[in-house]
Structures are given as structure tokens and as C-alpha cells.
Amino acid sequence: MTGAKDVVTLVPGATHAGAGEAPFVRTSFQNDMRTSFGRSSATDGPMKVDAAVPPALAAAVQPIDRGPAAAASSLGPAASQELSRAMLSSWQYRVSGKAAVAELLQECAAEHIACGGPRGVEEVAVRHIRRHDIDSDSIYVVDLASPFRLFKAWRAAMPRVLPYYAVKCYPEPAILKLLMALGAGFDCASKGELDMMLKLGVSPGRIIFAHPCKRGADFRYAREHGITYTTFDSSSELHKIAEMDPEFKCVLRIRADDPGARVPLGLKYGAEVEEAAGLLAEAKQLGLEVVGVSFHVGSAAKNLATFTNAIANARKVFDDAAGMGFKMELLDIGGGFTGHFDECGNVMFGEIANTINAALATYFPPGGDLGDVRVIAEPGRYFAETSSTLMTVVIGQRDRPQKDGSTHKDYWLTDGLYGSFNCIVYDGQNPEWRIVRSPILPDPADAKTTYVSTLWGPTCDSADVVYKDVALPELRNGDWLLWPNAGAYTVAGACDFNGIEFTTPMKVYVWSDIAVDVEVPEADSKAEQAAEGAQ
């Protein structure tokens, strides 16, 4: 839920458009993903879809989309013509240019909005709060245009590196389906994540089982479902692989620490480079196939030289492995990436792309003595963080007189440390907020005087506190706090302590034409709304 101040713009925003209305959806990450969008709440009936797109669309879309012509090719001539016409005329296809993405926007009833910044998201949320009289649930507003833009920026900045999304970061079904449609791979770490992605229709070849210490149940599931690649970093794991599934293509994870990363990982995973030769020799003795090297510099890394050094060390391991007769063909540069937008809505990638491209050109040049090594990465936060905004409502308050005569105010929210704000404890985040006054209550008489305040989570645990001693104007039951950049490592780590449904928040899906708040000329906005209404 934090921001970033990187540089170098890569992908500009698009034009503005109008807005409609969409229902809330309550989903559970643990349920079958094929039915995730089929449940709705705060509505009287099933989710609405655009009548312009016929039912044949669902059966026609392929995992990697090639547009309406390819989608219609398996249908009869009349049906193909109808599908192509309807698809090309829908706003969903117009903004994405992909049939599979258009289908997804239909499936989750995404609302088309002009701006995806805090003000634009607030407008969407306020409409839904007023319409459905929401007073006791948190709300996630998920902007699917954000990961779409970030994927395009990634491919433009680092064309050699295919992203394999780290599912653990934010297993939001709509984002998973979007990235699947765009051609991404997926980094899974357990039987549950493997099952989730396979049920979505991802082929085993687009999955890397990137956990260096797997359970027996994980091995059995992977073996039964054709998962090919997995990582290891210890002798123990090599022996488990040899016993459980010796057909795995093994990827040696080496340690590559960025001491400035928000969440360092080297203490737990990654073999020291000096240990690599011994592990390779042991793999050879066990008859295992080692095909690549992986590393992870840490979540939200800051030191660019860490990537250069890690890629250089990976080359050393490649050379050692090739000398032992292994056919090395995969380099996995892990995660650590962040993705944000500047004030004009352009993706801020920073110098990290130039650093990685230069290191790859030096140590893994295309057509070099190693051949064309396939390069992947495991970004999670990069795609997830800016995609979602959390809305929490004030459900209780209390004044505590202080000895100096001042008043300390306590406020209880609908989310806390057991929910999305676990990110404060586990991910080192410092969430930013924006006050949204209740659209149901009259404007407050005094909105300027501030008080030292504490924001509490809703559970019975006294440790469940989001922020202590922060300056806030007086809030009322029914006022809201808007928390931007709430996608990464938030609800994914929640649990339903006290029986409160933290893991299944209400959701509304949107597609913004620009990632930030800009002034949209009223005439243009009305014209766009009229055009979409006519469609």
C-alpha cells in the first residue's frame, strides 16, 4: 500500500471514457476458480454481461489470445461473423484489443471508468456504497487495466524476460485470468497454487514449481499433473526429488541478497555460490536433470548492482554445470520488482530494466556459447500492488480525555492486522490513506480540526491496531478510509479470525483509461457515456 519514486517512463496512458455501474462480488481464494465470478452479493440477481457479446465467446477464446478472427475461426461462418462484429464493437475489446481480456471484463462485470487514481476509485466506491447501503464490509476496487499496462511495459522494457507471476502475492482470480490471457507464466509454491492455476486452464508448461522445500503432497500432485520444472537449494531437497519425482527438470536456486530489500529472503532460501558445484555433483550422482539457475534478490529490492552480481554468479554456475554434462537452458531472475505510475499515468520502471538487459547481454548473450538461454522472472508485487484499492468503513469510536485536557480518539475499522493489514507486520508496509466521507450522512460540521487518533482493527485482540497516534479530523460511524496500492501481500495473507470474513472482501472490478487522476472534459465524458450506452 506504499508508493514509489522511480524514473524512466515507458507506457503512456490512454484516452478518457465514460462509466457505468457494476455489482459487488464476494469471492474466496480457496474456492474453485471456475466459479469465482459466479457468486454475487448486494445484488438481486446474477451478474450482468454486455448483450453485445454472444455466449459463443466463452468457448471461442484461447489461452493465448490472437484477436477476434482467431477466436471465431472454430465457429461456423455466420457465428464467426457475429462474434467478430460484436467483439470489435464492444468497449471491452476496444480498450484491450484482445478477445480473452474482453471476455474477462464481461465475466467480472468490470465498469469502464476514466481515471484509476484515488479520486476516480472513490467515485466508483461512493456510488456502490450509496446504492447498496454498505456499512459493515470492506471493499476492494480492482482495476484490471493496471496489470494490463504493467505487462505491456515489462515486455517493452525487457523483451528477453518472460514474467511468471508469483501467485502467492495476490491470487486474485481476475488478475490471474488477465495475465494468463496475455501469455504470462506462473510461479507456484504449493499444491493449492498449482491446483488453482491448472483449474483456470494454465498448461503445466507455463508453471514453475518455485519452492525450494516441498512437502510430499506437493510432489505427488505435481507428478500427477505434469508439472515439469522445480527449484532446489539443498542436498535434502535433491534426495526428495530423486525419491518423489526424478523426472523433474531441476533449477538450482542460489543466494543473491539485496540488503536494502523490504523483505530479504537469503537467510531462508538460496544455496551459497560456493556450494553450487557440490550440489550439482550430487544431482549428477542421483541421476537428476539440472537445467537452470534461479535467484531472488528480495521483495521490493533497491540495489541494482544486486541483479548484476546475481546474473554474473548464475553464469558461473551455468559453466560449472555444463562442465559436468548438464544441458542448461533456463535462467530465472526471480522477483523484487515494483511497478508504479507517474503523474501522467506512465509506467515508472526505473533503471532496473537497463541494468538487467546489460547483465544478460554480458553473461548470457543470445547465440553465445550457451545457446539461447530462456530467461524468466517471478514478479508479484510489480503486477499486484497498484491494481487494487481497499476501502474500510468506521464502525465504532470512542473519546478518551487526556491529562493535558486534549481528547484522544479511537476508531474501529472493518479491517485490521488479521486481514489485509497483515502487510504491516509481514511485509513492512506503511499504508497511506485518504478520508472518504459517508455518502449517506450529511457533511460534517467541522472537517478541519484534527485529533490524535488510533485506528483499530475489528477483532477482539488488543494487538489488532493499524495505526497509533495519528492526526485525523473527527470521523463518524459510516465514514470511510481509502487505502491505495493495496494489492500486494494484503488479503492474500489474511485469515478469518473471530469469524470475520477478512479473506472474502466485497469487490468491484473496473477498467480505467488512465492510471492516475486527471481532469476529464465534461463534454468528452458525456459523449463517451452516450456512445457506450448506444452500444
From TrEMBL:
Enzyme Commission number(s) from the entry: 4.1.1.17
Stored SUPFAM superfamilies: Alanine racemase C-terminal domain-like, PLP-binding barrel
Named cofactor requirement(s): pyridoxal 5'-phosphate
Source species, domain of life: Eukaryota
Active site: 460 (proton donor)
GO biological process: putrescine biosynthetic process from arginine, via ornithine
Modified residues (N6-(pyridoxal phosphate)lysine): 168
Domain Orn/DAP/Arg decarboxylase 2 N-terminal: 149-384
InterPro entries: Ala_racemase/Decarboxylase_C, De-COase2_CS, De-COase2_N, Orn/DAP/Arg_de-COase, Orn_de-COase, PLP-binding_barrel
Keyword set, alphabetical order: Lyase, Pyridoxal phosphate
Pathway the protein takes part in: Amine and polyamine biosynthesis; putrescine biosynthesis via L-ornithine pathway; putrescine from L-ornithine: step 1/1
GO CC terms in record: cytoplasm
GO molecular function: ornithine decarboxylase activity
Enzyme class: lyase
Known catalytic reactions: L-ornithine + H(+) = putrescine + CO2
Listed CDD domains: PLPDE_III_ODC
Family according to the record: Belongs to the Orn/Lys/Arg decarboxylase class-II family.
Quaternary structure and partners: Homodimer. Only the dimer is catalytically active, as the active sites are constructed of residues from both monomers.
Protein name per Swiss-Prot or TrEMBL: ornithine decarboxylase
